[in-house]
Amino acid sequence: MKKNHGGLLLSVMLAACFFSCKNAEDSIAVIWTDRIDFIDYCEAFNNAQDRYKITMSYKQNPADALMNASTPPDIVIGPWLRGDAARVKFAKIDNLLSETKINPDRFYPLLLALGNENETRYLLPVSFNLPTVIFSDSQKNLVKTNFTLSLEEMQTLSAGYNKKNNGEYTRMGFSPRWDPNFLYVTAQGLNASFKETKNLFSWNDKALQDVITYTREWSSAVNTSAVAEDEFKFKYLYDPPYMLVTGGRCLFWYMPSDELFSLNKERLKSLDYRWMNYNGKTPLQDNIIYAGICKKARNRKAAEAFLQWFFNEESQKQLLARSQMNNMIAPSFGLAGGFSSLQNVTENIFPVYYPLLLKHLPQTEDFAAPNNLPHNWEQLKKEIVFPYLREQTGSFTSDEKPVPLNRRISEWYKKSH
Q1: pTM metric for this prediction
Q2: Per DSSP, which regions of 278-350 are E strands?
Q3: CA angle, residues 207, 211, 216, in degrees to nearest 5
């Protein structure tokens, strides 16, 4: 019987081609993220080695995109990944945490712990931000604390800064009502405790009502009334925040750290700042950036290789240097828009590029973590929480009690469903 050597050779060639193509495909991993910085990070990784390749696809809300994806990517990087609905999409990554791979001791402990569920690791923290209060460098002698500033200190200093001319304010120290983001951070700092539930979200109602009452009392006791605050804001507060405080129109302004340190160096020279502090704690901004490998990742080895490279101090040092060159075109702060989750990088490398940090580094022991929040929390904040805080701290009578947040949620349901 004649052997079919030609057919056997063809089969071997086809099999070799198949496995070669499969290996090439397995060497490429896809990232979904809302941080455009990762275009540059992927390029740096691809240039640093030749075994794997990483590509990035921009998603406005990576958590939402993942939950609705029929074919998930390999890695997802973004905020709101810790919620129950999003977290179940990620694979366990305990195998990556070791001294020889990704050293868990390099992270801020609180941030690392937030990526766990029942002591199993699913997510790694990438970057974070903190709430700051800025003021003019010429006014720094008024602020006696070195790192943080409390509401009580702000209120006292603001009252002393106020100035009237012919019965109208020409200077006003500060109003919590000027920015709903400040009211929200204050609510979080004073234990309003917003968190994900099966029925949208829950909160500590007493703490939330206390924040509203406190804000109303500030308006009346320090700035005469909410009406006076609104009139002052309409008349004077149209310039960028750094100009408002350096120009002397107001004493303080709220600004998250990513916005503050995205300002150019010349503007930063005229500013000083403190971390906001509530009962001894500084609340982390709740949109902490996390990274996870999807359960259905097609290219897990490439995904793991990228994360091991990224969560390396030397890699992050190089990425910070690259980002400084890019900042001339598109200003942004730090790594992935915030402080690095690697404590040594933030405390020892960031000040090289952001000298203002040398005065007031983040105080690790003061950090307060946000609860797990829904993947659409940004929308819920803007459409429910912010309008509620604005309404309840606006014009009111002395004996008028705050309306419960439940009513605002019911109204939102009627409009959106």
Answers
A1: 0.90
A2: 282-283, 289-293, 339-340
A3: 145
